[in-house]
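Re: beginner question about structure tokens

> Can someone show what the tokenized structure looks like for a real chain? I only ever see the sequence side.

Sure, here's an example I had lying around. Input first:
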Amino acid sequence: MTLLLGDTAPDFEAETTQGRIRFHTWAGKDWVIFFSHPADFTPVCTTELGYTAKLKDEFAKRGAKALVISVDSLEQHKAWVPDIEETQGTAVNFPIIADPDRKIATLYSMIHPNADAKVTVRAVYVIDPDKKIRASIVYPPSAGRNFDEVLRLLDSLQLTDGYKVATPVNWQDGDDVIIVPSLQDKDEIARLFPKGYKALKPYLRLTPQPNKA
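And the corresponding structure tokens:
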């Protein structure tokens, strides 16, 4: 099964380090950053899960939370958590799914036999409150992810959901944004973007980020 942007994220039940969950119920009305790590007791994963734990407040500001999975057992997860907390200086404050039969990882296309048939690749899914997949990123098992980029992506998705804008290259929260080309009515543009805009080309119009003072 290949999941595409706009698809409904499949529901599932699973055992986690924080108890058994049904995914859609657990997600509720939050955004979910659902990602896989190749294996427990591995160095890159240890740093990633520690950094993710430190981002809990940043996720919460955005109405989001993290959910993690690997094909290791619940017992292995629970044995590994103290290592993460010791080396990364933070409590692991999100559920880690145990998926030893690889059913959930396969459902979400996290098993890539051409990379390594025995482990999950470093996949990231951004799932919105309607349970729709809004973004996905896949890394090889050897490359640690940039979770600051995941936050930036989440900021962009939430901003562009609320306003008729797109975010340009290397955009950061607070930077100018692009008025979508489909918006042509001058009165509506003036109403939506009272700070005005700069037209570099008829299709490239920059305006201050509309949800900033």
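Each token stands for a local structural state, so reading them left to right follows the chain. The radius of gyration is 19 Å.
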